[in-house]
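Changelog note: in this version the structure field was regenerated for every chain. One regenerated record is shown below for reference.
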Amino acid sequence: MAHTLFTSRLGGVSSPPFDSFNLAAHVGDEPVAVTRNREILAAMIGLPRNRIFFMTQVHGNVVAVIDQNSDPEVAPPADALFTTLPGVALVTLIADCTPLLLKSEKAVAAGRDVIVAAVHRFVVAVTKLTWIHIAKWCLEIQLRLLMKRAGA
């Protein structure tokens, strides 16, 4: 079963201006504080820290596949994470962007591995982002995933 969780800036250990529950390692916060905040996140969702995957978001259209060989300490440069692994968390960090959290209901209904994706999408202007843009981008992501899974 796939679950979703949205966090806020409350409940962590980061000092201003990152206070307090900053999960981003790329914004200048103290690495020790970010690590501790990520440990708090792991406890909050009931997963070990090594089952939580982040990405280095690049505001592009790269998809990283998280599989049994993926290292949770290495955040791949991507704007979407995809997995069929059970018991992992995929994290997308957002500020002024629109996240997409996707799961396959057909896979769940058929008793197969849950297919999950966390997508970070850069938004230049919210008024320019329409459902057609989202649908096109999701289709592009799905095609890339299928090609990657097929080894193409």
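Spot check on this record: Helices lie at 31-45, 105-109, 131-149. The two ends are 29 Å apart (CA to CA).
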